[in-house]
Input
Amino acid sequence: MWKDPIVEEVRKRRLKIEEECENDFDKIFRQAAEIQKKLTERLVSKPSFSLN
Output
C-alpha cells in the first residue's frame, strides 16, 4: 500500500503532541489554543455570506 509522506508526517507530529500532553485531551486543547493565539495572523477563517 502506498503511503503519503505528508499524512505520515502529520501522524508522527500528532503522536509527539499526544506524548507531550500525556494523552490528556484538555492539555492538548489548551496547547492548541495557546498556539492559535500566537499565530492569529496566519489563520484563515471561513467568510460569511448571505443568500439574499
